[in-house]
Amino acid sequence: MTQATRRAALMGLGASTLATPALNAQALTKMRVSVIPVLDVAPLHAAIAQGYFAAEGIEIDTSTTAGGATGLPGLIAGQFRAVFSNGVSTMLGVREGQEFKFISGASRATQGPPDILAVLVRKDSGIRSGKDLEGKRIASNTRNNIVWLRGMAWVEKTGGDWRKVNTVEIPFPQMADALIGGRVDAVISSEPFVAAALETGQIERIGWPMSETQPGCTNAHYVGMGPDLARNGEIFDRWARALHKGVDWVNERLGQPALLELISNFSRVPMERMRNVALPAYAKNVTAAEIDELVGTMQRYGLTGRYPASVSLIHKTAQ
Amino acid sequence: MRHSPGILVLVLVIGFLEFAVDAGMIRRALLPPPSATAEVLWELLSTGEFLPPLLSTLKLVFAGFFLGSAIGVALGTAMGISPAMFRLFEPLVELIRPIPKSALVPPLMLFLGIDDAMKITSVTLVVTFPVLLNTLQGVRGVDRVMLDAARTHGWGLGHTLRHMILPAALPFILAGMRVSLGLAMVLAVLSEMLAGQGGLGFLILDMQRSFQLRQMYAWLVILAVLGLLLNSIFLLAERRALFWQRR
Amino acid sequence: MRPSSGLWLVLALMALWEVSARLHWVDSPNWPPLSTVVVALFHDIASGELPPLIGGTLWRMGAGLAAGSIAGVVVGLAFCLAPVTRLLLGPAVELLRPIPVPAIIPPLVLFLGLDDPMKITVVALTAFFPVLTNTMQGVAAVEAEAVQMGRTFGVGPLRRAAFIVLPATAPYALAGVRVALGLSLVVAVVAEMIAGEAGIGHYLVMMQFAGRAPEMYATIILLAVLGYALNRGFVAMERRAIHWWFALGRQADG
Amino acid sequence: MAFLGLDALGKFYPQPGGAAPARIMQGISLEVPEGEFLAVLGPSGCGKSTLLQMVAGLATPSEGEARINGRAVAGPPPEAVYLFQQYNRSLLPWRNCRDNVAFATEHRLGRKPARAAADEHLASVGLAGFGDHYPWQLSGGMQQRVAIARALAAEPALLLMDEPFSAVDALTRIQLQSLILDIWARRRLTVMLVTHDVEEAIFLADRIAVLTPRPSTIGEVIEVGLPRPRDAIATREAPRFLELRHHLLNRLLARDAA
């Protein structure tokens, strides 16, 4: 699908090239962007589909990675110009000396429920809070990532000691099975898996780990490499302009079928389920305050270390 | 030792990497200097921190390896001596065999959860097939003359199995087990990467995700040495078991 | 072939799958009835979505398998015929051999990125070791008389390697390639699952993320059929290429 | 000067741990004039094959040297061809008979001429029309004929044979022995044959060198003195044949007992 829309956008551009041969003498700038097939990347796909990138002379080549942290090594290795990544993974890389820079916001928590993360339990479990989870097993897709971090914050917010909760790793698609089968007592899941899990009728949602602990908190961003940004700043200016038009397009259509259809197309999530899915707040910028909050939370839950000043990590396209 | 020039080469390569990283020819972001990795490795070893993950992986490998080998030998022998058993299981074996066992992890998670049961089962599955096929081949390859000799001596099935068929098939069975040992390690590491909370596979992935490359390489070295050790031990055991086969 | 008891067993298990899902004996969104899986499989093949993905996976698998096999044969011959190479490189190879492929992917990603070079390298590494082991076994089994025969006729060492040792080793090397074939498909898919927009592995990831269980299982069935067909095809090729070996009634797996 | 000369040849293998080296043979000296058929007879394990391999340049003597046409043997000499005991191991199973025979010469002549000549050589050993067969489709005796044809294809002046007929049945052996005598007479070859078969040695050879057990040396050299051409049946019944047979068997068996 993305392939087809990309081609269509190209053809449109080809036509305009014919019309004004002198202006478009140079070829399109190709950019490979690493994405995850999740709701948060809707603006990027919208900008591709609407031809915003083509209008800026950029051809986007998306590459899907299974996990959030897989794209960043590809960025280091020079495979990608930009990577969609959750904030925790990015900051862990920064902590280890990687020259990551935020080049655009991607998604934040909403100001209140619903948001895209949820704590799910079996209906008959009687578990209502983090306190109830002490000594029990909770699943995250990965430990030490944003899902886990916000989940631990929720445990603490609802009266539990996060150190007394055992975390295990289970891929999102298997979480509902593990919960129903009694392998774990709770899971921290993400949309659209939350909607799918709730469809079984045996699972209920007891918490919103992001909007209940820190309304509007940071979640995911687009990341580039410092040296590349210093050399090719102009390309990233154009790239961010196009992406941010995509953000506007998405934000104008929140709750409308056109947006759900777009997401369903690139993520392959069936349309019927899309109607029950909660969406994040789509962001253009990254603020030092939200990164400071993230780093503070990370320090609190054991991801300690020295992190550079947040301001220095935010490229001008994300300010 | 026989290998000394090769070990010298290894040392030279490591030395070169150290120099190359130092001189900036290789980015530290990709490869920390080997000395830094060695430091971490030493710390892991001297504090004993390496032991629990190692044992956790080892447990999976061993449990799956022995279970899978036992199933493979039993089923392979049954299929080798009984045409009825062969007809019953052959299509199923042929169908399941080519399925990438890693693709079976999601349904296995559904039925067995995320803990050792699932992990041991996936290791067992991957171990079973090479052993089964080799056992089948070995059992079928037993010399007719030997079987006739057993018949003329009036040996029963059990006796013939224990003293003739299995020893004759042993070289094949062990060859299959050697292949399976490597696969068992792969699946153990893979299942640790996919679910759960411990083991070498989990640590390697976790260190990569958090960009702690020195730690990642240190755990990788531990894993490599473990594999080397297991393989050498197996070869040694195989040589002893097949003493009569030496040329 | 005539239907055997085994076919009935397979059919019975398939029926059990269908019934267990239809009657909710196993109640999970991850346990769809077999019929919906088959429908999904045929739908995605007919819609033209799967065929190019299969092609891509087979290409990556083939390229990696070819590279790894050739390297395995070359290194195996070198190790046996020029022992100094084994003395120098043997320990490095032995240290690399036992590292499970999934563990080698993270550092490889750092050096080769996430594209075809990385994926093909991973497949090649997987294929390399079984072929190497078997090639060395094969060279060891070459009849000393055959090599001496070459020497008495004044045939040079390179020609002896090419016309005596290599053909005599072929059955062993090919048996190694056959083992590597099965592994290559698995590893190609695993590598595709890590990153990229191509191949069956990518499709599998997309369907997992989209929570589409029928498509997920369809992929597993597809891989089973592909693996089966590849193995069959390879065996047929092998029978032609080393017909003399089979005529001698030998087997190389032992 | 003799065509083939063995000059105090010896072979021993060093033993681990500083023990005295294991002597296989020592002080083997022989002169073989051009065109002679020499048999080397000895009990099993006396190192006959090793001796032949040293002449063929396939093994290196520990002391002494072998000379062909006055040149010391260092590698396989161009004049000599070696006929192996195990024809099924020296024939290449992936090549048909024609290509097996052609293997002897194709690196010098090129593939096409070598194959053309191969058919003639196959015919000369009675295998006309078998060029397209694979060795494993033929009987043992026929396979050894292919090996002989291959040896002839190299047009050797010296044929070295290592118990060439020990792996075929008794009747076939007699046929092949006659074939070899025939070829030897036609081509004026020099032949050195090692065997443990007393009758074979007498029937084929001009002279017989008898080896002692380890460490082997030459115990005696006997002129056979039977008239040629020899006949597969009549020669074996000649008084001289029986006399030699008696003498040699006595000698070999007595030594075995000692």
The fold-level CATH name of the largest domain in chain B is MetI-like fold
End-to-end distance of chain A, in Å? 32 Å
CATH superfamily of the largest domain in chain A: Periplasmic binding protein-like II
Computed CA radius of gyration of chain B, to the nearest angstrom: 22 Å
Provide the low-confidence segments of chain B as ranges. none
Number of strands of chain A: 11
Largest interface, counted with CB-CB under 8 A?
A: B-C, 65 and 59 residues
Strand content of chain A: 15-25%
Mind telling me the CATH class of the largest domain in chain B?
Answer: Mainly Alpha
* Broad shape of chain A: globular
Counting DSSP E segments of at least 2 residues, the number of strands of chain B comes to 0
How much strand content do the residues of chain B show? under 5%
Please state the average pLDDT score of chain A: 83
Tally of DSSP helical segments of chain B? 10
Alpha-beta classification of chain A: alpha/beta
How do the strands of the widest beta sheet of chain A line up side by side? 2-1-3-10-4-11
Tally of alpha and pi helices of chain A = 13
CATH architectural group of the largest domain in chain A: 3-Layer(aba) Sandwich
What is the H/E order of chain A? HEHHEHEHEEEHEHEHEEHHHHEH
Gyration radius of chain A (Cα, Å) is: 20 Å
Membrane topology (chain B): Multi-pass membrane protein
Keywords (chain B): Cell membrane, Membrane, Transmembrane, Transmembrane helix, Transport
Organism (chain B): Rhodovarius crocodyli
InterPro entries (chain B): MetI-like, MetI-like_sf
Give the structure's gist in a few sentences.
Chain C is 81% helix and 1% strand. By secondary structure, chain C is an all-alpha fold. Chain C has a single domain (56-241), classed as MetI-like fold.
Overview of this protein structure:
Chain C: The chain crosses the membrane at residues 58-83, 95-114, 120-142, 163-196, 216-235. The complex is a heterotetramer of chains A (319), B (247), C (254) and D (258). By secondary structure, chain A is of the alpha/beta class. Helix content of chain A is 39%, strand content 20%. Chain A folds into two domains: 10-17 and 21-109 and 217-318, 3-Layer(aba) Sandwich (D-Maltodextrin-Binding Protein, domain 2), CATH 3.40.190.10; 117-207, Periplasmic binding protein-like II (D-Maltodextrin-Binding Protein, domain 2), CATH 3.40.190.10. Chain A has helices at 2-19, 42-49, 52-55, 71-76, 87-95, 146-157, 175-180, 193-199, 226-231, 233-252, 257-267, 271-274, 288-300, and strands at 29-35, 58-65, 82-86, 100-108, 117-122, 137-140, 166-169, 186-190, 203-207, 218-225, 281-282. Chain A has a six-stranded mixed sheet with strand order 2-1-3-10-4-11. The longest helix of chain A has 20 residues, at 233-252. The radius of gyration of chain A is 20 Å and the shape is globular. The mean pLDDT of chain B is 81. Chain B has helices at 4-22, 34-46, 51-81, 83-96, 105-112, 116-140, 144-152, 157-194, 199-209, 213-241. By secondary structure, chain B is mainly α. Chain B is built from ten helices and no strands. With 254 residues, chain C is mainly alpha-helical. Chain C has helices spanning 5-22, 34-46, 50-81, 83-96, 101-112, 116-140, 144-152, 157-194, 199-209, 213-241, 243-247, and one strand at 195-196. In chain C, α3 (50-81) runs antiparallel to α8 (157-194). The mean pLDDT of chain C is 83. Chains B and C meet through α1, α4, α5, α6 and α8 of B and α1, α4, α5, α8 and α10 of C. β2 of chain A pairs antiparallel with β1 of chain C.
